[in-house]
């Protein structure tokens, strides 16, 4: 008979600190949804293949279904609920609304969190597999966006508008930088 071990952790989520006692096997996704009632992050495949559970961990995207909650202690977690500034949508959220970057909406929180990280990657001039010349900053192109967003699946096939929304938000970010 095996015993389960629990650990008391402190999670900083969307700017607030939460103390939780969790089974050491609890994923960040389950801690967010079941313990903190942050249900915007969706459970899709629960295997890290669809991206519906994407959140930002220290401003980088992760599949929260693969991340243990205990391993997120001391790090900054941002979910879809933490992107807006009060009633004002995050620019990526606004672009998804403006350009109809969703259909059923199930994958949208993960898509948006991933897009926020993609735009930051581009701003940091990180190359991707689609970058033509890694000696120069990557351009904001549909090909670049598609490559970087490839870990986020949309069962409805709203990719054309998702790519348009991320591209618009990225170009607006460049203008405002």
UniProtKB/TrEMBL annotation:
One of its GO terms (molecular function) is metal ion binding. Residues 7-83 form the 2Fe-2S ferredoxin-type domain. CDD domains: fer2. Pfam families: Fer2, Fer2_2. Pathway: Alkaloid degradation; nicotine degradation. PANTHER family: OXIDOREDUCTASE WITH IRON-SULFUR SUBUNIT, OXIDOREDUCTASE, IRON-SULPHUR BINDING SUBUNIT-RELATED-RELATED. This is Oxidoreductase.
